Amino acid sequence: MKDLQLYNTNPYDKLLLLSTLALIAFGALMIYSSTSVITPAHGRKGITEFFYFKRHLFTILIGFGFMYITYRVRPIYFKKIAIPFLVFSFILLILVFLPGIGVSSGGAKRWIRLWPSTLQPSELVKLSMVIFLARYLSDSDYKTDTFMSFIKPVLVMLIFQVVIIKQPDFGAAMSLVFLTFSMLFLSGTRIRYLLSLTLLALPVLYKLMMEPYRLRRIVSFLDPWKDSQNSGFQLVQSFIAFGSGGISGVGIGGSKQKLSYLPESHTDFIFSIVGEEFGFIGVSIVLILFLLILIRGISIANRAKDMFIHYLAMGLSLMISLQALINFAVATGMVPTKGLPLPFISYGGSSLLVNMAAVGILLNISRRRDEEEPLYKQRLIARRKARRIIETRKQGSNE
User: Fold this and answer.
1) Which pTM value belongs to this model?
2) Smallest Cα–Cα separation from 184: which of 214, 212, 149, 221?
3) Quick check: helix, strand or coil at residue 112?
4) Of 34, 167, 327, 387, which one has the greatest count of Cβ atoms within 10 A?
5) Residue 104 structural domain
6) Which residues contact 85 (CB under 8 A, 6 or more apart)?
7) φ/ψ of residue 73, rounded to 5
8) CA–CA gap between residue 363 and residue 72 (Å, rounded)
């Protein structure tokens, strides 16, 4: 029970909470707007204008429960469960392939049946990986200048990657790579290790890209107008949505692209509907809110006196921000199309629950400032920073 006890009365980060609540509320509004008109894409027996909206509200209520639990638990408790949680998320990832448990959709097996909805384990994997990396990077045995220290978490990530690619879920796989490499880079890992591994992975990446459906996505990304009625259709419709919105948008509920023109308008491409209905102003507000979450998360991480808590806060902030950034890039045609929801806004219970739990942890950390780390850990941080400066100067002199 001691892990559930608060031991100080410092105020939580109100700006982080308000930014999150604003995105959640706005997301609920956009879910209703994008699904209230029953179209052939949504129209099946039992679907009403409030079907998706009510399910989304139910998920939000559960999400607040998750947020409260993670807010109350002492952050150091997550260090204790890092390995069991990682194993648990891997087991869930395997369950998607079992008949009767796994749920297939669009040729992919990414979900497991969980009443009253489904669960996407790859979302939970990102949270478990952040907690695991925070524990690993904060360990006194971790050395930024040794290849063995670098390769161990990479091998763990690759095990998950094999299963995720098998589903297949290329977007989740790439976001896990970005998240892992970002945390390793911030810990002071030598850049040449990261670059070397990236070069070694290029042949594998090339083979994955040569899959016919992925190749079509890349070709349509380079020139979506060339095949605007087939492989480039979704991206062209996204462009039309943003173009129709202009500065102030066509108004809430006024989107025409949601009327079966833009596929996945309430999930992966909901940002395009935001651009159409609220224009440049609405898009800018959403970007600012996510930027505030990133800034406040980094600020919370930098104030942490314990290395595990520092990496945990940094990793959670990156987890939310990187996924949002990828979603923005996909919707605006800056990267090939990937199936990643926009945190707090897209319809999708797994993503919402995980991200709300992550914010609960960040709020928890923001009010805990009396955990002094041992002196040897303070010295370890200083040594890592010194190595990074020396390495940067060496690279500069070589150039």
Assistant:
1) 0.85
2) 149
3) strand
4) 34
5) 2-398
6) 78, 128, 131, 132
7) -75, 135
8) 10
Q: What is the pLDDT of residues 137-180, one digit of tens each?
A: 998 888 888 888 899 999 999 999 989 988 888 788 888 999 99
Spans in the chain with pLDDT lower than 70: 1-10, 38-46, 106-107, 115-117, 213, 369-399
| Number of separate domains in the chain | 1
Contact 360, 65 (CB under 8 A): no
Q: Alpha carbon of 224 to those of 101, 210, 239, 395: distances in Å?
A: 37, 18, 10, 40
Query: What is the C-alpha separation between 97 and 169, in angstroms, rounded?
Result: 13
Rounded Cα distance, 117 and 55, in Å: 9
Burial of 91 (0-12, 13-18, 19+ CB in 10 A): exposed
Exposed/middle/buried for residue 71 (C-beta within 10 Å: 0-12, 13-18, 19+) = buried
3-state helix, strand, coil in the chain (%, to 5): 70, 5, 30
pLDDT tens per residue, range 203-221:
887 777 777 767 777 777 7
Cβ neighbours of residue 348 closer than 8 Å, sequence gap 6 or more: 120, 267, 341
Burial class for 373, CB neighbours closer than 10 Å (0-12, 13-18, 19+): middle
Amino acid at 47: I
Q: What's 68's DSSP letter?
A: H
* Dihedral pair phi/psi, residue 195, rounded to 5°: -70, -40
- State the CB neighbour count (10 A cutoff) for residue 328: 17
What is the C-alpha to C-alpha distance for residues 192 and 219, in angstroms, rounded to an integer? 31
Q: Do 66 and 357 contact (CB within 8 A), yes or no?
A: yes
Residue 353: both structure tokens together:
């629950």
CA distance 56 to 43: 17
Please report, for residues 210, 221, 251, 316, 328, the alpha-carbon distance to residue 333 in angstroms, rounded to integers and kept in the order given: 20, 7, 23, 26, 9
What is the arrangement of strands in the sheet containing 102-105, beginning at the earlier edge strand?
Answer: 102-105, 108-114, 117-119
